[in-house]
Amino acid sequence: MSQSLQALDRAHHLHPFTDFKALGEEGSRIIEHAEGVYIFDAAGNRILDGMAGLWCVNLGYGREELVTAAAEQMRRLPYYNNFFKTTHPPAVKLAEKLCALAPAHLNHIFFTGSGSEANDTVLRMVRRYWTLKGKPQKHWVIGRENGYHGSTVAGMSLGGMAPMHEQGGPCVPGITHVRQPYWFDEGRPEGQDPEAFGRECAAAIEARILELGEENVAAFIAEPVQGAGGAIIPPASYWPAVKAVLAKYDILLVIDEVICGFGRLGEWFGSAHFDLAPDLVPIAKGLSSGYLPIGGVLVGDRVADTLVEEGGEFFHGFTYSGHPVCAAVALKNLQLMEAEGVVERVRDELGPYLASRWTTLADHPLVGEARTLGLMGALELIDPVSGERFDKALAAGTLCRDISFRRGQVMRSVGDTMIIAPPLVITREQIDDLVTLAREALDETARCLAPRLADEPQPEERPA
Ligand code: PXG
Prior knowledge:
Blueprint lengths: L1 H11 L7 H7 L4 E5 L2 E4 L4 E4 L2 H4 L8 H13 L12 H13 L4 E7 L2 H18 L7 E5 L8 H6 L3 H6 L7 E4 L4 H5 L6 H19 L4 E6 L15 H11 L3 E4 L14 H4 L6 E4 L11 E6 H10 L13 H16 L2 H17 L8 E7 L2 E6 L14 H12 L1 E2 L1 E3 L2 E4 L7 H26 L11
Parallel strand pairs: 3-13, 5-6, 5-7, 7-8
Antiparallel strand pairs: 1-2, 2-3, 4-10, 9-10, 11-12, 12-15, 14-15
The structure holds 3-[O-phosphonopyridoxyl]--amino-benzoic acid.
């Protein structure tokens, strides 16, 4: 059965972020069901989902309450839109709940179907805001290299993923990127002090503002911790210095919480961890624990008041903006997270526990750095012989990811950075397993790579 599914998949299905030909040759992994923090493949293998799907299944798999919320809402009102002065109870109740959970100055939400659509909305809203303020020339948005804000044209333009820009044709004009606060890859090789490096990255934002002219810059957009870029936790000096720069100039702050929101960093919003006061906050993923697609942009009073009082009609929206079934599931998800104290447990118990266990991997010869924040973690792989990054041709990260999957754990690779972001309902015992499985995957990766690191050629040794 799984072979025929693989054949059909190869014949008809173009997967996201995938080398179609290579996948066709290798065959896709088929995930059939899931429970708690585990996914199960077609062969019946149980795999610890160290990535919560794609950073989203915060409440874990198999939550009947979410299934019931969806089924009940589907029976009552499976669809109606929020256009043309209509709405429905799930959208209104979710809007109220989100604004109650968010920092006090965020009192409005614009719903979307995904994080990418949320960032498209951000771009349109930011430019609309400044136009309404009589400053249409203030349209430049500063993002960061290696930032990720989605895969629509605006999302990929706001993000700073060079391979996406190269494939995407011309990006949306008026978007520019500054250096990322990636200490391990950019500060450490230059022999800098991490805190001085953090301040230097913030200074790069100010330099770009001055280059463009403050009167032309609309907004700065960033993730609190870069997720898809490699779980990059900035040095402690970075965010206070960025805040100081932005406070000097009249520029909106957009904090993309698509990954960091809803408990990942031990707060409802990652910006609370870094004491940021964003004007706009794109959200998605953990909002519904990934059970149904829904996103949105939380809008601060400064922007919302202008859009409401001075804006007239905003020509923007999606058929599924605030979809009733997705909204009902998201609301139930937030209620469950609140009732079960999920966010507080990440902050007070599971985050510190993961930190204490994950950092023990730093003694592994392949690991140059082991870091965590909340329930997000990364390992930087290095060549044990040179102490530097592996030759890219070895694809060490991909090798380690595939070994890990085969041994029973999802661990994502971004280049040679290994990442985990497990469901927030993981237990201490499961964290122990996660760290043990990560070490075993590192050990096997080291064994596979050893012959290729030695001087004399050795027979190929690749995992099956
Ligand atoms: N912003 C951020 C910060 C994200 O991480 C998006 C926006 C876009 O959301 P949608 O819902 O349109 O995908 C994301 C998505 C990965 C990976 O492998 C990360 C994302 C999506 C897919 C894969 O790390 N992040």
